[in-house]
Design a protein that fits this description.
Blueprint (H helix, E strand, L loop, with lengths): L3 E4 L2 E3 L5 E7 L5 E7 L6 E7 L5 E3 L7 E6 L4 E6 L8 E7 L2 E2 L3 E5 L2
């Protein structure tokens, strides 16, 4: 069974930054970040292919979020800049259909 450990969430003011980390227990090809805001469905945020570094993002975070990987550490990151209140959600990483426990991101003044 694949396990994913997320970290890096917290409370930040609008315009601030946070960096999330996700470390899967196995080597994998693709990692995704999703988020789920209160009362809303889980939505895709970003994807990275670990061998090529190819990335893609949902439109609402383009130019503000960056997904990256450190293959030596088998860790994927989500750098979030210029955060907005609407980015408030639980953020999950996913690979092969396995999910982490989620990390809360709250953007509020």
């Amino acid at each position: 069974q694949v396990q994913l450990v997320e970290s890096g969430g917290g409370l930040v003011q609008p315009g601030g930054s946070l960096k999330l980390s996700c470390a899967p227990s196995v080597r994998t090809f693709t990692m995704n970040w999703y988020r789920q805001a209160p009362g809303k469905e889980r939505e895709f945020v970003a994807l990275i292919r670990l061998s090529t570094g190819y990335t893609t993002y949902t439109d609402s975070v383009k130019g503000r979020f960056t997904i990256s990987r450190d293959n030596a550490k088998n860790t994927v990151y989500l750098q979030m800049n210029s955060l907005k209140p609407e980015d408030t959600a639980i953020y999950y990483c996913d690979t092969k259909g396995y999910w982490g426990q989620g990390t809360q991101v709250t953007v509020s003044s």
